[in-house]
Automatic annotation (TrEMBL):
Keywords: Hydrolase. This is Tol-pal system-associated acyl-CoA thioesterase. Belongs to the 4-hydroxybenzoyl-CoA thioesterase family. Residues 18-98 form the Thioesterase domain. The gene is ybgC. InterPro entries: 4-hydroxybenzoyl-CoA_TE, HotDog_dom_sf, Thioestr_dom, Tol-Pal_acyl-CoA_thioesterase, YbgC/YbaW. SUPFAM superfamilies: Thioesterase/thiol ester dehydrase-isomerase.
Length: 139
């Protein structure tokens, strides 16, 4: 498991008719974890950057391995696996204890709010993410 993770409890609203977590809710859990990681880095509204820029999910490559069920205590991790000029790829995992339930690579792109076209991450944001990425490699 990575160093950054948040706890999530599975509520009845998270489950489908079969009593297991509905697949899209894993993506919601991952969104919360990414948001909290960005909050820890000092961004109180992580989707909104300076100069009319937004962070938006570009793509998600997700693998579902084991089901979570009602009342499970989960840990949802977020780590930066790739940082480019216009996007960040987060490697995210959902665990129940030591069991890996779901894993995903989520690509988050920086776009201009006015036209939703790709834009470079602000220099300060890129530098902070790069610093975090490098410090995580040495832990």
């Amino acid at each position: 498991m990575t160093d950054f993770s948040i706890p999530i409890r599975v509520y009845i609203e998270d489950t489908d008719a079969g009593g297991i977590v509905y697949y899209v809710n894993y993506l919601k859990y991952m969104e919360r974890s990414r948001t909290e990681l960005m909050r820890c880095l000092g961004y109180d509204k992580p989707a909104f950057l300076e100069g009319g820029l937004l962070l938006v999910v570009h793509s998600a490559n997700t693998r579902y391995l084991l089901p979570a069920t009602l009342d499970d205590a989960l840990q949802v991790s977020a780590e930066i696996s790739k940082l480019a000029r216009t996007y960040v790829v987060f490697r995210q995992c959902v665990y129940r204890g030591a069991a890996l339930l779901c894993e995903a690579d989520i690509k988050v792109a920086c776009v201009r709010q006015a036209d939703m076209r790709p834009a470079a991450l602000p220099v300060a944001v890129h530098a902070q993410l790069k610093g975090y990425l490098n410090s995580a490699d040495t832990i």
